[in-house]
Design a protein that fits this description.
Oligomer: homodimer
Helix content of chain A: 25-40%
Distance between the termini of chain A: 52 Å
CATH architecture of one domain in chain A: 3-Layer(bba) Sandwich
Largest sheet of chain A: 6 strands, mixed
Strand content of chain A: 15-25%
Number of strands of chain A: 23
Number of helices of chain A: 12
Largest interface: A-B, 63 and 63 residues
Strand order of the largest sheet of chain A: 5-2-1-9-20-19
Chain lengths: 444, 444
């Protein structure tokens, strides 16, 4: 289960790098908890250790915590990046036993108990790895340039640029086939990301942009949602999947179920053997865990998720925990815990409780018990589906529930107000607040 | 004054490109007014032609109108890009005689009366060139990579990234000289941009970030404002320049007057013969007009501004107008009109009036008469200077005036609310809303 050869290959046996000293505001005598990743899981763990007699170091390669469930709204010009991201430092400002390091972790020396950031080394007594997941192309990495995924703010801004530029280019081309291709948007993957993206692109085209062009009518845009499986939103009951298809069709989205994508090129997407010429393709299908399994020399499943004990520690390494999308977390019945924010948060809190108990010499909580809060997905203005086991909602009520839940969970009061305002504004005016084409690929 | 050789060199004699046809929503029989640039001047001209019997085409290489006076707030993490930018299409949505083209103009064929966007050609009967200005390095273009200027949203986001990353790197370095260099910020140029940037960086370091680090104290940051001339804000009376220096010093900014910059490198800035080691340098000094003079084969002054007649038309080309920062506009007394938004707006309206009069066969308004609304510059929270001729303000009152004026002139109601909210929030909490490090140069 351990992989010493990997450790040697990564240079973990050489102690060449400088060791980061503990700043004087932290007390060096306390146990050091290092958390890698400031997503929902890592941040929940850090906060749950606030009053514990430990020194917390939270490492992330971004300076902000991202509210990923709303990233598709940045990609479709509804929200600005800053509205769904908060500086990690600001979140933990008042937590005196915590420090934040901006850095890209390159490896873990489990023998010396050191996290490596290039040449720098950060010592730990407890390590929590919460590095999340990225999109995967099932062995077709050559599709990535044509079908970008949606995991980071830079991804979302790049997709926003593609979508908005497609309409601009359609407005100035006189070639009708090219115009049709520019006005075709294919979303691959019928999970929540795919459903939300397809619905949001349809609303952008058919509402927000409807009056803004002279040579084209954005309402002619063709939006295709492709899912290889037999239905959308497989985590939901079948009745809600069917309602989702109905709502999407009402918005003008073409839903293709049970059709596999066999090629993605500059020409478009080949789906069910047919080429759909499309200029803009968004990937919402595969997810793979981050490189953490490699750092840890740990066992992993097919999606790259680290195999963990029932208490989320690494087998044989009780001081190392892996949580959230990075880990193959299981429910009591042996089913996989879903890769959603509540699961990561619960896992972060569970691990923090375990560490606190171990330090205090109290009985540890043991097995991680996942409490499923329900599933929510939005399809567009006034349309969503919600599944809370016995209670199921669709349509406007589900949409209100979805809006309230998402605003509530946005970390900061200021963001809550800002996002609420933007949503109300969009709701009543059909407008979008962040229709900017920025960055490299523009006309400059 | 004409430059046929340039026209030939630019391939203007070959009619190879496709000509953009007029969309059916516009009426092709009406005179065609083409406006290049959707800044304050171009947009004012387009709007002032709303009820005129013309067909307006507004061309810009960006899809948004930018409220440039607040760009420094994006660069210092106070506002999000979308808060100071509005889609041009959305602004002109209801103006039925206007269309918007996203495109980068590459030349003008004045003989055939065509604007060239690469291979595309857009015919005009009247042409308004309002392409603004960019920053200039007075023959030291090699300084640009080390001292980026502030004209575009991408500039502002890049500067924000540099500033925020400097604090992050200072937190993790153990090398004290390197730390001091990382915490030194030099702003070059004592005009409004330089003063506002220096004040905003000081507030960011000394207020918003003050509690967020553990190894460094951001309040130790050194902010240096350099001006080669004898005083700051030369457009203001001397008394207000002196007050500006006082306010900046109070904020902890080191003001260096009468000291020329002789080198900018990766090591820092050489000013008055002394090297100030600095990791972050912002250029707010020189401005040069866009390449429009070259397209037009027109005479220009030392800053590249096109020489225009009193009515802002090109000499010998009464159907071509050049306005705003692109033109060397003069007051009745032969003094240069300042390069500020109100001047560009007034010029845009004046040219629109001229075109309307000419089409209607009425007497044209003739000479452009500039009405100076006054000068305003903000130095930081609760500090600004305002000069309205006989009325001069400084301190809190000027700052309130500045805030109200800037919010008022933000084009869209929604942006006004959003920006007001962010400012009130920052005012009461000392926080910044957009502290994100995004884009290429991050740790990915």
């Amino acid at each position: 289960m351990n992989a010493p050869s990997t450790m040697v290959a990564m240079g973990l046996d050489q102690d060449t790098g400088p060791m980061l000293t503990t700043p004087s505001t932290l007390s060096p005598a306390r146990p050091k908890v290092v958390i890698v990743g400031a997503g929902f899981g890592g941040l929940a763990a850090a906060k749950a250790l606030a009053s514990a007699p430990v020194e917390v170091t939270l490492i992330d390669r971004r300076n902000y915590h991202l509210f990923q469930p709303l990233l598709y709204q940045v990609a479709t010009a509804g929200l600005s990046p800053a509205q769904i991201a908060q500086p990690i430092r600001a979140i933990l400002r008042r937590q005196k036993n915590a420090r934040v390091l901006l850095g890209r972790v390159t490896g873990v020396d489990r023998r010396a108990r050191m996290v490596e950031i290039g040449e720098k080394r950060v010592p730990y007594d407890y390590l929590i790895v919460a590095t999340g997941a990225r999109h995967a192309y099932f062995g077709h990495d050559e599709w990535e340039p044509f079908a970008p995924g949606l995991k980071k703010i830079d991804d979302a801004v790049a997709i926003r640029r593609r979508i908005l530029l497609a309409f601009e280019r359609a407005e100035t081309t006189e070639d009708l086939a090219e115009r049709q291709k520019l006005l075709t948007f294919v979303v691959i993957g019928g999970g929540p990301t795919g459903v939300e993206m397809a619905g949001a692109i349809a609303e952008l085209a058919k509402r927000a942009l409807a009056q803004d062009f002279r040579a084209i009518d954005p309402r002619d845009a063709r939006i295709v949602l492709v899912e290889a499986g037999p239905r959308l939103l497989t985590v939901m009951p079948e009745s809600l999947s069917a309602k989702t298809v109905k709502s999407l069709k009402k918005l003008g989205v073409e839903v293709r179920l049970g059709q596999a994508v066999t090629a993605v090129t500059a020409e478009g997407v080949t789906v069910g053997g047919e080429l759909v010429p499309a200029h803009t393709v968004v990937w919402g299908a595969g997810v793979a865990a981050s490189a953490a399994a490699k750092w840890l020399g740990a066992d992993k499943d097919r999606a790259g998720r680290v195999t963990v004990e029932a208490d989320l520690s690494l087998p044989g390494q009780p001081e190392v925990f892996v949580i959230g999308d990075t880990a193959a977390m299981m429910t009591k019945d042996g089913k996989p815990v879903p890769g959603i924010a509540p699961a990561a948060k619960q896992a972060g809190k569970h691990v923090a409780r375990t560490i606190r108990a171990r330090i205090a010499g109290r009985r540890e909580p043991g097995r991680f018990r996942y409490l499923h809060p329900g599933n929510l997905a939005t399809i567009g203005r006034s349309h969503a589906v919600a599944d809370f086991g016995t209670y199921r909602f669709s349509g406007f009520i589900a949409w209100v529930l979805w809006s309230v839940a998402h605003v509530y969970f946005l970390i900061d009061f200021r963001n809550r107000i800002g996002v609420s305002f933007d949503w109300l504004w969009s709701y009543f005016t059909y407008q979008r607040g962040a229709r900017l084409i920025t960055g490299e690929d523009t006309l400059d």
